[in-house]
Amino acid sequence: MKNYRNPLRQKLAQGKTAFGLWVTLATATMTELAIEAGLDWVCIDMEHGATDYRDIVEHARAARGSDLAVLVRVPSIAIDSIKRCLDLGADGIVVPLVRSARDVEAALDFARYPLAGKRGLGGERAQRWGLRVEEYIATANDEIMVIPMIETADAAAAIDEIFAVPGLDFAFVGPGDLSASLGHIGSWEGPGVAETIAQIVASAGAANITLGTYGVGPNDIRSRCEQGFRFLAIGSDAAMLANRIGSELSSIRNLMPALGRQIA
Predict the structure, then answer these.
(1) Model confidence, pTM
(2) Are 89 and 70 in contact (CB under 8 A)?
(3) How far apart are CA 229 and CA 57, in angstroms?
């Protein structure tokens, strides 16, 4: 086994734009479908929904042998959830509800082995059940991605301090929750939020931070790419399935009157 390498980090280092899928459904079939569709990464969401650690293992297994990276949005900034997700084979963690540089420092600390951090050394799936420990730990501190979510007014206000944290390379902007935190709950990008995001992008550029975000359709994703975002979620699995089912059903219902059929 070669030393561990993170496929998403490698693509971004090569200057590529990477597209991913936000995964809220437990079934690892979603990760298999993401690979077949040609996506670069998935983010398994443990903050919301019923996804648990067994599901993380199955999603990571589904991605093995591919060049798709598996990220996990952990439920909180806690050492137990961060180290367990990494030990189960995640290529990175997405950290929710960051409010300060101290939060980011804690997440980095929990995700790295000593002396750079406090991550305990286990012999789990990431280390091939203890058979490939040396190969994994040789590069894990450099390859694992720790990605704070900029989704609160506090984080936006402290953005320069957050992006100045040593060892931070990535961040993810959540326009919906950022809007809510700024007083516009239910809006994807409420009044003044675009200006706040522009300030975040400018600060990231000055600090050499690579930014990701979530898009709502091709036009929005194109706009985010033009703003400078480099890794983008094209949607979430459940929402995309629901939208496709609803669209197909609507088309079918529109055709039925032409056949003289009644519909429910």
Answers:
(1) 0.94
(2) yes
(3) 29
